[in-house]
Amino acid sequence: MDIEREIFKRGKINYQKLVSYGFIQENTIYHFSKEFMKSFREDITIDLDGNVSGKVYDLKTNLEYTNFRISDLTGFAYQVREEYILLLKDIARNVLDANYFIYHQANRMANFIIEKYKVYPEFLWDKYPGYGIFRNSRSNKWFGIILNVDKSKIIHNLTGEIEIINLKLDDKVLDYINHDGVYPAYHMNKKAWVSVTLDDTLTDEEVMEMVDISYELANLSGSWIIPANPKYYDVIQAFSMSDVITWHQDIKAMEGDFVYIYLTKPYQAILFECKVIEANIPGVNHTFSMKLKLLKKYDEDEFSIRKLKEYGVKAVRSARSIPKKLVEELQK
């Protein structure tokens, strides 16, 4: 039983903290000793590669005591192991700089995701403390989950711990599934998700290419249709006076999103393309507004309700996201 590796695997040794804790450096090795249970001593060594090893000695005989490493222990040896583990955990708490995950590529990918998408892994399950999910900040949907599993879960005839990231690729699954390091998803819908090994089989750039696809599939569209009733607000007049207007915000719009203003009867058509230049402006009674900058005007017959129905937009009764194919047509 590799007790030391299990306790120290989720962090990086901080050698200055080792010395502060009481470790003594001899060349490239750091040593620490402590007595426990009145009749035992633990000797812990850590090298410059971060390898941790430990031995327990019986103080009465000065011989190494190894019974505590046997699996399925009970009785006295079990007590020795539990005390030894408590001492190791105290060292780990005090000398480790925490990593989110175990292996280098998993931590690199987590940092890339944090830097690019400003989302952090969430660890939701006490039973699986190493399972970290990533959510799209706009939709709150998962777009990735890093897990530590046995290789046999995804690769036949292989064993040993590995970290993988599950990513949603939908109709692109078949484009990637035959690549080295990409497998049918563990514990997810295999028609839509894949498992990617984080063991440097693929480069960081190759993994991030799939992460980006998964993030976008989990994304809410950054383009919106909002209705405007000319009886209550003359948006045509408003834009004739200024190319920036303030609008009540009841959508999850963000700065940089596109907003298409649909005028109801008698027009029944999208007449304006705008860009959100400021979002979530606080108002009274917990309301919010956004600032829209006019980018383009459309003729009444370009994107009438009849045209919109061809793209699956049958009615515009409230603000809503907009189909991707319609956005492509609007932005031509």
Quick structural summary:
By secondary structure, this protein is α+β, with helices and mostly antiparallel strands. It contains nine helices and 19 strands.
Structural overview:
The structure is a single chain. This protein is of the alpha+beta class and 332 residues long. It folds into 3 domains: 3-98, no CATH class; 104-218, Aspartate Aminotransferase, domain 1 (Alpha-Beta Complex); 223-330, Hypothetical protein (Archaeosine Trna-guanine Transglycosylase, Chain: A, domain 4, Roll). Helix content is 26%, strand content 33%. It contains 9 helices and 19 strands. The chain has helices at residues 3-8, 15-21, 75-95, 104-117, 173-176, 204-218, 235-241, 305-309, 324-330, and strands spanning 11-13, 24-26, 29-36, 40-47, 52-58, 63-64, 96-98, 122-123, 132-135, 142-150, 161-168, 182-184, 193-197, 223-228, 244-248, 258-263, 269-282, 288-297, 320-321. The strands form 4 sheets. Strands 8-9-10-11-13-12 form a 6-stranded antiparallel beta sheet. Strands 15-18-17-16-14-19 form a 6-stranded mixed beta sheet, sandwiched between helices. Strands 2-3-4-5-6 form a 5-stranded antiparallel beta sheet. Strand 3 and strand 4 form a beta hairpin. Helix 4 (104-117) crosses helix 6.
